[in-house]
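Q: What would this complex look like in 3D?
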Amino acid sequence: MFLGGKRANELNKPVILDAVAAGATKYRTNEANKLLNEVNFSVIKGNVSEIKALFAGESSTRGVDASEEIDENNIDELVFFVKNSAKKINSIILVTGKIDILSDGNKTYIVKNGVDEMAAITGSGCMLSAFLSAFVAVENSLESVLAAVCTMGLAGEKALETMIKNNAGNSSYRNYLIDEVYKMTKYALDKGAKYELK
Amino acid sequence: MFLGGKRANELNKPVILDAVAAGATKYRTNEANKLLNEVNFSVIKGNVSEIKALFAGESSTRGVDASEEIDENNIDELVFFVKNSAKKINSIILVTGKIDILSDGNKTYIVKNGVDEMAAITGSGCMLSAFLSAFVAVENSLESVLAAVCTMGLAGEKALETMIKNNAGNSSYRNYLIDEVYKMTKYALDKGAKYELK
Amino acid sequence: MFLGGKRANELNKPVILDAVAAGATKYRTNEANKLLNEVNFSVIKGNVSEIKALFAGESSTRGVDASEEIDENNIDELVFFVKNSAKKINSIILVTGKIDILSDGNKTYIVKNGVDEMAAITGSGCMLSAFLSAFVAVENSLESVLAAVCTMGLAGEKALETMIKNNAGNSSYRNYLIDEVYKMTKYALDKGAKYELK
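A: Here is my prediction, written as structure tokens for the whole assembly.
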């Protein structure tokens, strides 16, 4: 991991950190922190508690609500925290949740695509990481991350429509989700993306 | 396996044995017997031949038909065998097949939910084992095992209806089966469970 | 692999080589060639470039077009190449592509079943290899390989119809493909197989 990350840095290839379970176990928090010290990441992705475990030891983030979910009540506080953390580490940070927040330290977007059903299957977070890699490989920018996040969430919304129409469940939902990614078009993304510049 | 089972016993956590391929290879029969000697199982699950391989060396079971399938002809004999075996080992024994038999040595139920299609995919037996674990973790009782067996079989029946309606095959069936588990409600289970106290 | 192949030869069991990535890496080309030297294969399967990597070092094949796809323009040249290679190695060779070519060195068939969608999922090539094994285990003949290839391609065609009807995508397509294999009948195969003796 360390060797791969450093070599990718040398070759100017974007590297993405999916900080899975940072904060949940000491080992994972430590490894993630070591990676952050030794590798330059283009994008650092996690849910609220994962990202807080990595960046909220800083004084500027003490005010961040302990809640693990992003909603209308804590969104402004979290946007401030994510933006500052991104500026400090000089990477894009993506916090996923009911509302997603992404920032490169200068600009910050929030995304409202996606449905709860995506949490009823395994792998939707990993799919998004794969997406990020594909999008950032083409264009290493905040807008590229924004497009990946909107695409995934929009696919989740469309898949839910099919699930409801077919009176299906979570196993079929997983197929429908991949189907919708497969069928996604620029037109559908433009029409369905729900994001705001903060 | 041995360490895990013993530790779970110490902590009063229910342990389930899925006696896969006991009787089919010497190694597996021996390992299953060693586990039965060293660990107290809440539930021991297997098909007719697996359970017979573990318990039919006993004199009381000599009369048990050599047939591997449970049907109306051998059901009474098998009920007697399962009940006696459960009493002897002081665990719940669950024998799966066209008709399922489950007994804690005092009470014995038979279950007639389920369809042949469930044998056309891999994993439906493992799903039931996972189910048993979930149900028995909540309530360690014969009725809890009964509910798990009925839920699985009923999901299989409903999934078959969808497969036929959609003119689908076994791969879609596997998804429909998980879908039906996901959608199962107390009401549907009460209405669709087909069991008898023997 | 070597031991297994030789033992199967001793027992007169058919052995199939799926020459995945021969030609793509030195290691795989060498291993495939070693296997061809030490084991007698009933069927050797690959796409155009894989089969060419193994057999086109021979003088008789210099004229073979460098194109990796089989189409109406290079089909006659490729048929000639496959037939000659099969004769030389005394095995059935199956070249897969938009058009499939199979020959035992005497007779050569081309098959036009199948759709592009099969390349949009992982595993369809492996499914065909599993099919070949099943078919050749029953009857070790060129016609048996022909039936396997037509069955797989025809299942792919039917699965595409379902995908389009349901406005689905590649993940559902993978399920539909397995469904169609499951539902395939002798009658449907006779009616839908598209092959020619060359």
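A: To summarize the key features: Residues 92 and 141 of chain B are 8 Å apart (CA to CA). The mean pLDDT of chain B is 92.
Q: Very helpful, thank you.
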